[in-house]
Specification:
Blueprint lengths: L4 H10 L3 E10 L9 E4 L5 E3 L7 H14 L3 E5 L16 E9 L7 H10 L3 E8 L9 E5 L2 E4 L4 H17 L3 E5 L10 E8 L4 E5 L3 H12 L3 E6 L15 E4 L2 H10 L8 E4 L4 H13 L5 E4 L3 H13 L4 H4 L2 E2 L11 H16 L21
Parallel strand pairs: 11-12, 11-14, 12-13, 14-15, 15-16
Antiparallel strand pairs: 1-2, 1-5, 2-3, 4-5, 6-7, 6-10, 7-8, 9-10
Helix pairs in contact: 5-10, 6-7
Length: 375
C-alpha cells in the first residue's frame, strides 16, 4: 500500500470509494511478494501491480466490482491451463489476493496511517481477509508500538491480533495470522493479513568469528537486517557470513560512529560485540554506550574478561549509568556450549529485554504469556 498511498488518499479525502487489491500470500515462484498492491481509483484508473502483468486485467475487473458493491473478496490465481485465454500466472506460481473497498466508511483510520508512514513512524495494519461472518471481512486494526486503533469485531480478537502483530511490527514483517473465529489460538476459522510499514530492525555483530556466523543466521531468521563488522579482511567475507545482509571490513568503533552520525540506528537496534579482544571491543563499546539509545548492547566473554572490560571502560571515563546499558557477559543461562546454542542464549536475552520477559520458565508463571509493556 505504501507505493500507491498518494493515489489512494485523494478519493478517500473526497469521500469517494476506490478498490484495493493486495497480495496476501504467495507460493512457489510468484511474481510479487506479500504486500504488493494495485489500486483502482474512483475514476477507474489503475495504479500499482500485483503480478507484473499476468493477472492485472482480471484483478482490475474484480477491484472495480468491489469498489462499486462494497463487498471484499479473497481470490487465488495459479498457473494458466491449456486454454490460451485462461487467467493465470505463466511463471508457475500461486498468489492469494485480497480485494477491498477503501473509503472513509470502510477504513476510517487511513488518514492517520498515512501520516505515520510519511513521518517514518512504525505502523502496521491488520485486516480480516477470511471469516465465516462476512460482516467481519475487511475490518481493520491499526498497530502502533504504543497501542492499537480500530476493531476486528470483538475485544478478544483485538487483543490476540494486537499482541501477535506487535512482534511482526517490531521485526518489520508482513504476513498472515490465523485464529479461531473469535481470536482463539487455533489454526482455522479466521485469517488476518498484517502489513508492516516499517523497515526491519538492525543487528550489528562485531567480530567475524564462528559465534558471529551462528548469531547472524539466527538474527536473519528473527527478521533483523544483520551486519557483520570486523577489521580483519581475511575473516570479514560474505562467503563466511551468507546470512548477513552486509559484511563490513572496518574498525568496529569507526563504523559504529559513522552509523550513529548518519542516523542509521534506532531504538530497535541490537549491537553484539563478540571480539574478545580489548583493542577492538573497548573502543566500540565506548561508542555504543555513549551513543543514542538502542535496544540492546551485549558483549561476549568470560567472567574474567568481563571484569577486565568493565575496568577498562571505567578507566576510559564511562560512568555507572552508561555501564548499566551493557549486557555482559551476554546471554541467558541456558548451559550453551556450541556457537548455535550460544546464539540462542544471546537472542533469548535481547528478546526478553524487548518484550519485558522474565526469562523464567512459563510453567512457573501465572501471568499472561504476552506482556503489554515494551522496553
Amino acid at each position: 500500500m505504501r507505493d500507491i498511498l498518494a493515489a489512494m488518499l485523494p478519493d478517500w479525502r473526497d469521500g469517494a470509494t476506490s478498490g484495493l487489491a493486495t497480495v496476501v500470500s504467495t507460493f512457489k515462484s510468484a511474481p510479487r511478494l506479500p504486500g504488493a498492491a494495485m489500486l483502482v481509483t474512483a475514476g477507474g484508473d489503475a495504479v500499482g501491480s500485483v503480478s507484473g502483468g499476468c493477472v492485472e486485467g482480471a484483478v482490475y475487473e474484480l477491484a472495480t466490482q468491489v469498489k462499486d458493491d462494497g463487498k471484499p473478496a479473497l481470490v487465488r490465481y495459479g498457473i494458466s491451463d491449456d486454454d490460451a485465454y485462461a487467467v493465470g500466472l505463466t511463471c508457475g506460481g500461486i498468489i492469494d489476493i485480497f480485494v477491498e473497498p477503501v473509503s472513509q466508511h470502510h477504513f476510517a483510520e487511513l488518514g492517520d496511517v498515512a501520516l505515520d508512514i510519511a513521518a517514518g513512524r512504525r505502523v502496521g495494519v491488520a485486516t480480516v481477509i477470511e471469516h465465516p461472518d462476512a460482516a467481519r471481512v475487511g475490518r481493520h486494526l491499526v498497530i502502533r508500538p504504543d497501542g492499537c486503533a480500530g476493531d476486528l469485531g470483538s475485544e478478544r480478537t483485538n487483543h490476540a491480533v494486537g499482541d501477535d502483530a506487535q512482534g511482526l511490527l517490531a521485526a518489520g514483517r508482513t504476513g498472515i495470522l490465523t485464529y479461531g473465529v473469535d481470536g482463539e489460538r487455533l489454526d482455522t476459522g479466521m485469517r488476518v493479513f498484517f502489513a508492516s510499514y516499517a523497515p526491519p530492525p538492525r543487528m550489528i555483530v562485531f567480530g567475524a568469528i564462528d559465534f558471529a556466523a551462528a548469531l547472524a543466521r539466527l538474527g536473519a531468521f528473527l527478521g533483523y537486517r544483520v551486519t557483520v563488522c570486523d577489521a580483519r579482511p581475511v575473516f570479514a567475507t560474505p562467503a563466511r557470513f551468507p546470512d548477513a545482509a552486509e559484511v563490513v571490513n572496518a574498525w568496529p568503533h569507526r563504523y559504529l560512529s559513522e552509523q550513529f552520525a548518519q542516523g542509521l540506528l534506532d531504538a530497535r537496534t541490537v549491537l553484539c560485540v563478540l571480539t574478545h579482544d580489548p583493542k577492538f571491543d573497548i573502543p566500540v563499546l565506548e561508542v555504543a554506550l555513549r551513543g543514542s539509545p538502542v535496544a540492546f548492547i551485549g558483549a561476549m566473554g568470560s567472567r574474567r574478561t568481563h571484569e577486565d572490560r568493565m575496568a577498562r571502560l571505567r578507566a576510559a571515563g564511562l560512568g555507572d549509568a552508561e555501564l548499566a546499558r551493557l549486557h555482559s557477559p551476554v546471554g541467558l543461562d541456558l548451559g550453551a556450549r556450541t556457537p548455535e546454542e550460544t546464539a540462542v542464549s544471546i537472542a533469548a536475552e535481547f528478546i526478553s529485554r524487548q518484550w519485558n520477559g522474565s526469562g523464567e520458565p512459563l510453567r512457573q508463571l501465572g501471568e499472561r504469556i504476552h506482556h503489554d509493556e515494551q522496553l
